[in-house]
Amino acid sequence: MPTPAPSTCPQAQNSPPAAADGVAAAQLKLRRFVHELNTPLGVILMANSVQKQQLEELSQQLGAQQQPPPHKALGLLTELQESNEMIQASVQLAIQMLMSPAPGQEGENSALNLAETVAQVVALQRARHGGVDLQISLDIAPNLRLMGEASDWHMLIGNLISNSVAHGFQGRKGGQIRIEASLLPNANLYLRYADDGVGLSEQARQSLFNNGFSTRLGQGHQGLGMGIVQDLVSKKLGGRMQVLPSSQGAQFSFELPTKVFQAT
């Protein structure tokens, strides 16, 4: 019986180069997408800066009036200014993320150094609140690493600091903030945030996470930051957030079931 000729399948022989070409094409397409996305983000950032200047001018005009403006108008202006700041911070973060390596890689090389990540958030918040004297101390082990997205920590820590500035330190030149993080016996991450601001009343403790609640009572103001933090912690990160009793300032604790390990 004649020996069958070796099988020569062009698809099998060409599959490795075809796969490589597909990866290269996908990477090129992604680079073009990132480049094209930077343009509308830059336009949004520029328009947001113009809006911020207009809101500041409107605030000055209202303040110069002989008759004090209605509380509702002041509350609306404050909401617009806070929303403007949130848009600016989010767009800046989006631009930074586009310029960073793509996430999704597994292994320790893709893990975040928590101390470095929180320090970056603190630096951005200092720049954002340049007119406020923020004394922020960190107690996070330098070798503490975890799997996660840096954007989550920008959102979590950034909103906490902004809340301290807007509410806790209102009417002051600044204040003190302390951020601690450690591993729990169950391997979850424990985070504690504390400031030395005006603190929270019992009513505020009970209503803090209700939609639209704000500690600026009677000013027509609707709160946003703490609701965002609560949603992020409970819905995306699957953790728990608690308001801790405090004789001075506000204190919050977080337990996050993220993959945490000590790097050697």
Please give a quick description of this structure.
51% of the residues lie in helices and 17% in strands. It is of the alpha+beta class and 264 residues long.
What does this structure look like?
The protein is an alpha+beta fold and 264 residues long. The protein folds into two domains: 17-98; 111-262, Heat Shock Protein 90. It has six helices and eight strands; from the N terminus they run ααβαββαββααβββ. The chain has helices at residues 10-64, 71-98, 114-128, 150-168, 202-207, 225-236, and strands spanning 112-113, 133-140, 144-146, 174-183, 189-195, 240-244, 251-256, 260-262. The strands form two sheets. Strands 2-4-5-7-6 form a five-stranded mixed β-sheet, covered by helices on one side.
List the helices and strands and how they pair.
Elements: H1 10-64, H2 71-98, E1 112-113, H3 114-128, E2 133-140, E3 144-146, H4 150-168, E4 174-183, E5 189-195, H5 202-207, H6 225-236, E6 240-244, E7 251-256, E8 260-262
Parallel strand pairs: 2-4
Antiparallel strand pairs: 1-3, 3-8, 4-5, 5-7, 6-7
Under CATH, the homologous superfamily of the largest domain reads Histidine kinase-like ATPase, C-terminal domain
The share of residues in extended strands comes to 15-25%
**The level-1 CATH class of the largest domain:** Alpha Beta
Distance from first to last alpha carbon:
64 Å
CATH architectural label of the largest domain: 2-Layer Sandwich
The radius of gyration over CA amounts to 24 Å
Question: Helical residue percent?
Answer: 40-55%
CATH topology term of the largest domain: Heat Shock Protein 90
Strand order of the largest sheet: 2-4-5-7-6
Q: Catalogue the unreliable spans.
A: 103-109, 211-223
On the 0 to 100 scale, the average pLDDT is 76
Largest sheet: 5 strands, mixed
- String of helices and strands: HHEHEEHEEHHEEE
Structural class: alpha+beta
User: What is the count of structural domains?
Assistant: 2
Total helical elements: 6
- Number of β-strand runs: 8
Shape descriptor reads: flat
